[in-house]
Amino acid sequence: MQTAPKKVINGWAMYDWANSAYNLVITSTIFPAYYVGITSKGNNPDDHYVEFFGRKFINTALMDYALSVVFLIVAFSSPILSSIADYRQNKKVYLRWFCFMGSAACLALFFFTPDRIEYGIIMFSIAALGYWASLVFYNSYLPDIAAPEDQDRVSAKGFALGYIGSVLLQIICFVIILKPALFGLDESDKTIGARLSFLLVGIWWFGFAQLTLRVLPLSSKAERKARTNVLTNGFKELKLVWQQLKSMPATRRFLFSFFLYSMGVQTVMLVAAGFAKKEIFPDPEDEPKLLVTIILIQLVAVIGALVLSRLSRLIGNIWVLILSVTLWIGICIAGYYVKNQFQFYLLACAVGLVMGGIQSMSRSTYSKLLPETKDTTSFFSFYDVTEKIAIVIGIFTFGLLEELTGSMRNSIIALGTFFILGLVALFYTKKVYDKQHATVHH
Fold first, then answer.
1. Which of 84, 114, 173, 246 is deepest in the core (most CB within 10 A)?
2. Which residues touch 60 (CB under 8 Å, ≥6 apart)?
3. Which range of residues forms the domain containing residue 141?
4. Which positions of the chain have pLDDT values less than 50?
5. What's the CATH number where 181 sits?
6. Number of H helices, E strands in the chain
7. What is the pLDDT of residue 224?
């Protein structure tokens, strides 16, 4: 197949630019800092409890539980959604719908004040649902628009644009929070800057996504199949992919290692800001430093994604992933012991270096390991369900360990374990992958 015209590639990558603002501002920086700030009464463990529909939770654990429910919903609904999208002949409709749902929930977070905890958590969850469900359709476009030899480059382009776009909006939000008077805002309302940031994310996400929705093609004719039962068909397709994987040892083992290290990667990204706010930057005066640190992570991640993409040409995708997961293990060990802000800055740089790269490299490695197939959506749906179930386990374990032990540091040990298992599985994948390629070349 031929790679799509530049206009289509750029349009596809622009969705990363549009939605990464949600991932940075709502998932990683301003929302967690705002939420921990308004739900913490002091620095003792007992000061971090929050009531949610009459039940008490540790504030950060409640957020982890809410996200694990969202990922569970996405994991079980994405096969049905993919199936309906194929049946209706258009992935684009669903991409548009979930983009609208997620961005509308971000707009609604403007009304999340300290006395509306339930409302805030529900809107936060709907925004997450819109973001992650839209990615199912976004990712499945990659093999449709890029030839195998161009997929690493196109995938990295999406991630790089995503980081740049999200950092741009983050800086704007940052200025609003630090200098509300510049924008004519009431300085006595300490929540207005953060709440306005949530509003801006919704506008940014919805606005820039229109560029993507304008240029992405309809599903190819080969994907427009007659379906008998649309609701169960997605699960039948997953079962079909599962059966096909039995004769694809390298792909199967790669997916297993991806499942293991994803429990760690995604959880770190989802809980980092809450951990930093509680353990390293508890003083409200330190909040700007926390936000600067997370911008630093994003900027380093752009470099990381591009460096690992180049490195893959020299040493191959699997070696790059092995290197990345090894670095993640070191990050977990350092994270357990990190005590002061300077140590946290160093750790943040290390996280940034492998964060973007491992995601971009995982997506394109999987894409390369796929057989020649017209049904890319089913294979990507399987990839997506694998990742989501990994996140459910990872983030639920993190929240539960914090509630059981009273410390987020103990939860980091669990993440380190996931990475170690993922590394072992990657070495096993490498062995099978080399054997398979040796057979092909003979």
1. 173
2. 32, 36, 48, 271, 274, 275, 278, 399, 402, 408
3. 6-217+230-441
4. 227, 442
5. 1.20.1250.20
6. 15, 2
7. 53
